[in-house]
Amino acid sequence: MSENKLSHNFINELFRLAFLNKDINLVVREFVEYSHIPDEWRQYKKVLKSIKNSNSEEMITFGIVSQQHISDVDVQEAITQIKDADVISKDQALDQIQQFIKNQEFKLLNNKIVDMYSEGRIEEAMEYQAQKSLEIVNFSLKNEANRFLRLFADFNDFQKEREIKKEAGERDHEKVPFSIDVLDDITFGGIDKTDTVLWIMRSGIGKSTVLRYTGMKACQLGYNVLHIQLEGSRDEVYDKYTEMWTKVSFHDLKKSNIPANKLPMIEKKIKEMNTMGKELFIYSFEKFENVSMFEVRDLIVEYQKINGFFPDFVILDYLQLLTTGENKKLDTDPAFEKKKLNRVAELMKNIAVEFNTRCITAAQTKDIPFNQWNDPDFVITRSDTEADRTLAKSFSYIFSGNQTIEESKNNIMRIYIDKLRNYKAKQSVFKIKTAYDKGRFYDRIKSLKMYEEREKV
To answer: Cα dihedral angle (315, 350, 84, 148), rounded to 10 degrees?
Structure first.
């Protein structure tokens, strides 16, 4: 947005939300002025007029606005662009329009003060400035908008918002699948927006592999993924991901030895992903000291600046390599390790909520005696991390990967469900087949075959 006008993209996003959310609709009607829209976009001024003239008790629809301007080709095109705009969060919209209005009010105040001063009304100008400045500072659209959702009174409006989103296909991508059949069945499709996921495993068992596997599958399904690597080089992570989708071995990729017969398939896949406009972004900090959650947040903001939207899915590999960035003693003193990890988990949840995304990470267990982890009846729980049991508060889902020496030889992993928010599993432990030789955590074909054989017994 310029200093004086709303930008074209933001107008589309704001109006899109005004057709979906009653609170934003009310804010647009009361606070957005025709002068805020550039004169060359008169079609949007006409849409704004329709919104302002609509019944305050009912949400206006695209159909009504379209019918009101049935012969205006420019308005019809504007409606199409509004319908196609991204649905930003309510808080994002309020923050943007609130800052814009404050800037406008501050400029008007300055102009008025200059006029009063030039007229010799100095004392009056000082008092006016003190009063008006305080009003501008305290102005908040979040106070104007209804911050409470009423269970009964808002039922119809709430359901209408959902219906409109569903018709527009905007609810189709609300869940990012785990791409592990049992977990997707239990959760009715996977990970919701604002959810956080924690995997717990011993060192070398596959915590990075499961994170990359989920990220790769999410990207292939059309989600925008951001992988933040906290340990190891960027090239190594890149090659591990590439191994998954090209089916070229990690060692061949490092030597740039790609079989000629696989090149057509690779080019076809690249073209397909480019057409979809979806991508998996990798960022490696590649530094010796740990990374703070403030740096993670800044990176997500930078991602948005580059792409124009926030990632659907954020991968953080892995938990113990993160710090809060709030307190040096908390972040560096081993005596505070539990508190640090708990606070990092809380900040991760805050990020998921703030950017309306999903976060997944992994934690390495503390030392577990051999006779325990090599017992096929033993499972890792949240108590086996370097944090304490309160770590679970910030995560929507907690799973652990368990493997004896014999299970490792047979490519079998036992997954223990430690926490499922809002869902219930028939059993807390289930087995899967792994495919680590192909860079994949989950071998779907062999796992499903194993389930079928078990049911026959």
So the answer is: 150
Q: What is the largest CA-CA distance in the chain?
A: 96
For residue 104, what are the contacts with CB-CB under 8 A and spacing of at least 6? 4, 36
The closest of 230, 260, 236, 263 to 250, measured between CA atoms, is 236
**91 touches 147 (CB < 8 A):** no
H/E segment holding residue 343:
helix 337-354
Query: Residue with structure tokens 């430690």?
Result: 418
As a dihedral over the C-alpha atoms of residue 345, residue 328, residue 233, residue 277, rounded to 10 degrees, the angle is: 50
pLDDT in tens, 126-142: 998 888 888 888 777 76
Coil, strand or helix at 67: helix
Q: Are 242 and 227 in contact (CB under 8 A)?
A: no
CA distances from 452 to 445, 447, 456 (A): 11, 9, 6
* Distance between CA atoms of residues 109 and 134, nearest Å: 11
326-379 tens-digit pLDDT: 888 989 898 999 999 999 999 999 999 989 899 999 999 999 999 999 999 999
- Count CB neighbours of 92 within 10 A: 17
Six token digits for residue 55: 């019944």
